[in-house]
Specification:
With 646 residues, the protein is α+β, with helices and mostly antiparallel strands. Among the domains are: 344-498, Isoleucyl-tRNA Synthetase, Domain 1 (Orthogonal Bundle); 543-631, OB fold (Dihydrolipoamide Acetyltransferase, E2P) (Beta Barrel). The longest helix has 31 residues, at 344-374. The protein is globular.
Length: 646
């Protein structure tokens, strides 16, 4: 089909705040979107997949100030971490939008001006309580604490009073239109339980929404009134238009807008299912088709957050297992709409049993037999018997169900269905005992049929798994001597009997690396909430005692993560007359490439320590934050390495 005659599909992830480095929760949203985008490509759609970062607002302003850097410096650092993670997770997005892009800013300014001219935005005074962590104005019925602040009902953090001149958006005027939207489009919000939440929220009545701040400098200034910066959610939601080229590339915008799915976490549903369609209606835009609110990944039954000290760094798992097992686990373990509790034991169990045992062993055993008995090429294949026909027709039945589940975004159910078929194939081999037939030369055509049939089934399995585990699927596909790259083949054309028997099948290679469970579990982060006692001032030391510590300026020459660990970075540092190796637990705050070239203070006469088998011959100085992460004071000046620090 010609590209421009294909049906289009536009999917988005939320754009991520840059106050923090990405964790499993962020990875989850993006992996679901990637799997859906890949599936739609297999279905022959012309797909556009947008992701990016939300870089303005008070939260980022405060985080940058706490680190002593500017907001844009913070954003630049963290954007790199997001992009690196998406690469490591095989995320095949089409465009990465940053809200600090000048183009986005100009377009938001003009969309704002348009609504103002139309009378949907007016000036007034806002008085109320604002949660910086959620960048959200609290509703009036949240009770006031005795100390004069409110507690945000969504995140539990303190919300202080703000009282300032502001521009309001006439949200109240859109209440009926929103109710009509929900009534006429029952799948506008999914899953259904979330639609019910939204309907009852809007039914209770909508107040006009404050959409500018005068006390926040880090934002897009309002045209003709630059004392006001645009509220970060008004700014951020419009990424879905600017990211698809609204003014930047009108052809692109016309081709893909409106979005088919805005995939988001359940915590930001109200912004997407109430504010966003109201802004769009006011601007005269077509509305997105579905806002899908997925559940959360919890750790020890609570939402992951940096302040609780229970966030999971995806790199720990990626370093030990690679990409596909993590993608598989997150998509298989829970239905997209529900919460799930992450445990390393659960992860290892699922990956070992489904990927290594069921799928990995099937591939390994089958291709080994085809090598051993046929040198990779079938000769004479016997006609299909009833049991062989059953394996084939069973696939046709499974295929329909798999497609229906994927279409419904029920990825875990599609995977259940695929695994049921993997069991059927394993049972087929067990029942037909090819290893016994192989002992009898006269049975060779029967043996060929059984192995051919199982290989044809494996090929269809690899195909169906492509959205979820693209790298492993492609590997199996290639071992089966398929020349075409996977997404180029359309699902509708996937036939069991499309497996040409004249091909040369490859020797198997291990697909899912064996994992040393003990080592991996030893790495499980201590996830109890970190409640630190205030550190007391220590006992006095004499100046002579202090002088015995040799503190020096060191320059970091090289830095790399210590594989399979959560926090450790190994560095080579120049301390003047020599270069030393140093290991430090700073990976939750810094990425190795940000460290190279930086100058800092290290102690050079402390007894070397061995950390995870690596000798550390110096120790750096850093501030320890309440969540146990480290912030290093770097020198801005160009001081020679080796200079004494006293
Ligand atoms: N910047 C806003 C979104 C603006 S979209 C116009 C934001 N950013 S966020 O970085 O805080 O969160 C982004 C997404 O990550 C949200 O959908 C959120 O639900 C998701 N997750 C964050 N932690 C999560 C888990 N622990 N589990 C699953 N997803 C979670 O909100």
């Amino acid at each position: 089909m010609a590209e421009n005659s294909k049906q289009t599909f536009y999917i988005t992830t939320p754009i991520y705040y840059v106050n923090d480095i990405p964790h499993i929760g962020h990875a989850y949203t993006t992996i679901i979107a990637d799997a859906i985008a890949r599936y739609k490509k297999l279905q022959g759609f012309d797909v556009f997949f947008l992701t990016g970062t939300d870089e303005h607002g008070q939260k980022i302003e405060k985080s940058a100030a706490a680190r002593g850097i500017t907001p844009i410096e913070l954003a630049d650092q963290v954007v790199g971490r997001f992009k690196d993670l998406w690469e490591a997770l095989d995320i095949d997005y089409d465009y990465f939008i940053r809200t600090t892009q000048p183009q986005h800013g100009t377009e938001v300014q003009s969309l704002f001006a348009k609504l103002k001219d139309k009378g949907d935005i007016y000036k007034g005074t806002y008085e109320g309580y604002y949660c910086v962590s959620d960048e959200n104005f609290l509703s009036e019925d949240v009770p006031l604490e005795t100390k004069g602040y409110k507690i945000c009902p969504d995140c539990g953090k303190k919300a202080n009073k703000v009282s300032e001149e502001t521009y309001f958006f006439k949200l109240s005027a859109y209440q009926q239109a929103l109710m009509d939207l929900y009534a006429n489009n029952p799948t506008f919000v999914r899953p259904q339980s979330r639609m019910n939440e939204i309907v009852s929220f809007v039914k209770r009545g909508l107040k006009d929404l404050s959409i500018t701040r005068t006390t926040v400098k880090w934002g897009i200034p309002v045209l003709d009134d630059p004392e006001h910066t645009v509220y970060v959610w008004f700014d951020a939601l419009h990424n879905y238009l600017t990211g698809i080229g609204y003014k930047r590339d009108p052809g692109l915008y016309e081709r893909y807008w409106p979005a088919d799915v805005h995939l988001i976490g359940k915590d930001i549903l109200r912004f997407h299912a109430v504010f966003w369609p109201a802004f769009l209606m006011a601007g005269g835009f077509a509305l997105p088709k579905t806002v899908f609110g997925h559940g959360w990944w919890l750790k020890d039954k609570t939402k992951m957050s940096k302040s609780k000290g229970n966030v999971l760094d995806p790199h720990t798992i990626l370093d030990s297992f690679g990409t596909d097992p993590l993608r598989y686990f997150l998509l298989r373990e829970i239905p997209v709409g529900l919460d799930g509790n992450f445990s390393h034991e659960g992860f290892i169990h699922r990956v070992n049993s489904d990927l290594a045992n069921d799928l990995g062993n099937l591939t390994q055993r089958l291709l080994t037999m085809i090598q051993n008995y046929f040198s990779g090429r079938f000769t004479d294949i016997e006609e299909e018997k009833e049991t062989d026909i059953k394996l084939r027709t069973e696939f046709e039945r499974a295929k329909e169900k798999i497609i229906a589940f994927y279409d419904d975004l029920a990825i875990n159910r599609a995977l259940e269905e695929i695994w049921a078929y993997i069991s059927t194939v394993n049972r087929y081999l067990a029942d037909n005992e090819p290893w016994i037939l192989a002992k009898d030369e006269t049975q060779k055509p029967r043996l060929a049929r059984i192995l051919y049939q199982a290989a044809a089934a494996l090929r269809t399995i690899a195909y169906c798994l492509y959205p979820v585990i693209p790298t492993s699927s492609q590997k199996i596909w290639s071992l089966l001597d398929e020349k075409q790259a996977l997404p180029e083949r359309c699902f509708a054309d996937l036939e069991f009997s499309g497996f040409d028997p004249n091909r040369i099948l490859q020797k198997p290679k291990p697909l899912f690396p064996r994992v040393n469970l003990k080592d991996f579990l030893a790495e499980e982060p201590k996830s109890q909430p970190v409640k630190k006692e205030k550190e007391k001032i220590m006992d006095q030391v004499s100046f002579d005692e202090f002088k015995r510590m040799d503190l020096r300026v060191a320059e970091i020459l090289e830095a790399e993560r210590v594989e399979g660990t959560e926090k450790l970075i190994k560095m080579r540092v120049d301390i003047g007359d020599e270069v030393r190796q140093m290991v430090a637990g700073i990976a939750t705050t810094y990425s190795p490439k940000d460290l190279v070239g930086k100058k800092l203070i290290v102690i050079v006469n402390l007894k070397p320590a061995v950390i995870r088998g690596i000798e550390s011959q110096a120790m750096l100085l850093a501030a320890v934050l309440p969540d146990d992460s480290a912030l290093i004071p770097f020198f801005q000046e160009d001081i020679p390495a080796g200079s004494k620090v006293r």
